[in-house]
Design a protein that fits this description.
Length: about 350
């Protein structure tokens, strides 16, 4: 671990940090430069919390060399990763990409109806589940490959890329001709066999945070995909389980700037699953863009009251269109544009 002291750090502050490190069991090697002092601490436990040092006065930066993830870590690509698609769309650059669509593909009429409306409002990626991970085995389980075909058709017709969830290894090949991105759902974030297989693919993977996963665990899951050679990973905050019951999940917006600090991978926010309540989705989408999200994933249904899944958190097309107008105003305030 490297502890870089501020230029202005006093000798007393430096000594204080050295003593802290020694007390924690590190052996410390000090380099005193002309301007800055750097402390190399050897012997870190893998679960050491670097924040304990970051808060000490006089410390500028703590760099944990022994981070359990390497490829997903910011230092692997300090300038960030931009994922570029064949149609020129980029995720991770200046432009914020909005992915939208129904929770599940239910029928041709449903999908084409909502696709036309969200494309008109500015969505660049069409979402829709063909294989659905439902909490109850008695709930609608998705249309399967028929749903994938409809997604591709609607995506091509309305000029949007297509993202859909892959739940198991056997679905990967089946999905390849139809999707531009694979979505790995919260429930599968630690399905390491699935992650390894996706690591062999050449398609981008949007990896959602598990409902009780730490950000380090999310990054370690990304590492599984990247270790196989697929560096096209996009992370997604979709709400975590907390003691709050008002919302379905608690959307951890702080995950956005934290991931941007820890990792070079683009970061998405899903305010639909993050709140579970339609009226909470626009404010949290706006907050996500303000917090620096590279993309949004939003559920929209042409008739949410009749949706076969997640109707309560699906926006009406008109609400989505208004949200897009608002996002176009917010993005420039934080140096971005809506793609
Ligand atoms: C979804 O996107 O419809 C979905 C099931 O998401 P999650 O895995 O975040 O629950
Ligand atoms: Mn859903």
């Amino acid at each position: 671990m490297i502890v870089a002291m501020q230029d202005s750090a006093s000798e007393e502050q430096i000594q204080n940090v050295v003593e802290h490190l020694v007390r924690m069991g590190f052996s410390v090697h000090r380099t005193t430069g002309e301007r800055q002092t750097v402390l190399a601490a050897v012997g870190a436990r893998i679960d050491f919390d670097t924040r304990n040092l970051e808060v000490l006065s006089g410390v500028e930066h703590v760099h944990r060399i022994s981070a359990p993830y390497k490829l997903a870590g910011r230092s692997f690509r300090p300038d960030g990763t931009i994922i570029e698609f064949a149609n020129g769309l980029k995720i991770g650059g200046e432009e914020v990409v909005v992915m939208a669509g129904p929770c599940s593909v239910e029928s041709r009429d449903q999908l084409f109806n909502v696709s036309e409306k969200i494309a008109k409002a500015g969505a660049r990626v069409l979402r829709g589940g063909a294989f659905k991970p439902r909490s109850s085995p008695y709930s609608f389980q998705g249309m399967g490959v028929e749903g994938l075909k409809l997604l591709r058709e609607a995506g091509d017709k309305f000029n949007m890329l297509v993202i859909s969830e892959v739940m198991e290894i056997s679905q990967i090949d089946m999905m390849l001709p139809y999707v531009d991105l694979f979505q790995v759902g919260a429930r599968n974030m630690q399905n390491f066999n699935l992650l390894r297989e996706l690591g062999k693919m050449k398609k981008p993977v949007l990896l959602k945070r598990g409902i009780a996963a730490t950000l380090e665990e999310l990054l370690l899951s990304a590492e599984y995909i990247m270790a196989g050679g697929n560096y096209q990973v996009i992370l997604c905050e979709r709400g975590i389980r907390t003691f709050e019951t008002y919302t379905r999940n608690t959307l951890d917006i702080s995950a956005i700037p934290i991931i941007h600090k820890l990792s070079h991978l683009p970061m998405t926010s899903d305010p639909s699953h993050g709140t579970g309540l339609r009226d909470k989705v626009p404010p949290m989408a706006r907050a996500s863009v303000a917090a620096g999200a590279d993309a949004l994933l939003i559920e929209v249904h042409h008739d949410p009251d009749k949706a076969l899944s997640d109707g309560a958190q699906s926006l009406y097309p008109q609400q989505f269109s208004q949200l897009m107008d608002e996002l176009r105003m917010i993005a420039p305030a934080v140096g971005r544009k809506i793609a």
